[in-house]
């Protein structure tokens, strides 16, 4: 997806080579490869069952990988446990948010910092940064997460991932179930994160959102990468517009 990073920035490059995922005898992801350079935003689009979510889960170590290699920051993540991936600078916002409904908003956020070695003032600073990005979370810090709206829970899921100070954020369907206005709010947040230098890997069925939020994109079909290109190129590609945008 991008030119090889130079040595000065290679520490923040995600490199995926020949990644495969099988569920029993079914191949969900077949020998895909791509890179995400420091500060780059890459999107993955495709129909249901194309292998998008399985790709993100495989990167995080949440599903077994049947082949391939994953490198990030000079570290081979291929055999690293899921709980340790966060410590290497990768944040994850899962599909469906998965906040802890019986815990207060601030407790949910603090759980996002569990993998960090620092505490105290740095944690308070991270909380302040999340509340500055999402003022509504600051206003509701003592409210149970289960009482938040769907959009507010999505903000909470993103904020929780940011608490670990990632260099790369993986987001799975952040616009799912949200109103058009809230989708615009999420898009604004993604742009802000990019401006702050955070790398993004975004999985979305909302192709329009993906093209607006990313610089480059993969189109997945039946577990394989069917097309790659800049987001602008793919947005205007007749095949993509017909198959994924319905026009």
TrEMBL record:
Nucleotide-binding among keywords: yes
PANTHER family referenced in this protein's UniProt entry, alphabetically: HIGH-AFFINITY BRANCHED-CHAIN AMINO ACID TRANSPORT ATP-BINDING PROTEIN LIVF
Gene Ontology MF terms in the entry: ATP binding; ATP hydrolysis activity; branched-chain amino acid transmembrane transporter activity
Residues passing through the membrane, by range: none
Family: Belongs to the ABC transporter superfamily.
InterPro entries in the cross-refs: AAA+_ATPase (IPR003593), ABC_transporter-like_ATP-bd (IPR003439), ABC_transporter-like_CS (IPR017871), BCAA_Transport_ATP-bd_LivF (IPR052156), P-loop_NTPase (IPR027417)
UniProt keywords, alphabetically: Amino-acid transport, ATP-binding, Nucleotide-binding, Transport
Residues in ABC transporter domain copies: 14-247
GO terms (BP aspect): L-amino acid transport
Source organism per UniProt: Actinoallomurus bryophytorum
Any Pfam family the entry gives: ABC_tran
Protein's recorded name: Amino acid/amide ABC transporter ATP-binding protein 2 (HAAT family)
Keyword Mitochondrion recorded: no
């Amino acid at each position: 997806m991008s030119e090889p990073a130079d040595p000065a920035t290679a520490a923040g490059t995600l490199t995926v080579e020949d990644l495969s995922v099988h569920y029993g005898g079914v191949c969900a992801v077949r020998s895909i490869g791509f890179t995400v350079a420091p500060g780059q935003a890459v999107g993955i689009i495709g129909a249901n069952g194309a292998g998008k979510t399985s790709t993100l889960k495989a990167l995080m170590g949440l599903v077994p990988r049947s082949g391939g290699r994953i490198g990030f920051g000079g570290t081979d993540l291929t055999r690293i446990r899921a709980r340790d991936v966060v410590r290497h600078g990768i944040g994850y916002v899962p599909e469906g948010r998965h906040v802890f409904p019986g815990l207060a908003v601030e407790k949910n956020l603090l759980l996002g910092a569990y993998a960090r070695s620092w505490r105290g003032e740095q944690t308070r600073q991270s909380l302040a940064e999340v509340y500055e990005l999402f003022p509504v979370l600051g206003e509701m810090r003592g409210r149970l997460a289960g009482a938040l709206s769907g959009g507010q829970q999505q903000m909470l899921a993103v904020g929780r991932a940011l608490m670990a100070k990632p260099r790369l954020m993986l987001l799975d369907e952040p616009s799912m179930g949200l109103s058009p206005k809230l989708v615009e709010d999420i898009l604004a947040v993604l742009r802000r994160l990019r401006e702050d230098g955070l790398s993004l890997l975004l999985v979305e069925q909302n192709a329009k959102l993906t093209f607006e939020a990313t610089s480059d994109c993969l189109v997945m079909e039946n577990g394989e990468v069917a097309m790659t290109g800049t987001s602008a190129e793919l947005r205007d590609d007749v095949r993509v517009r017909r198959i994924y945008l319905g026009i």
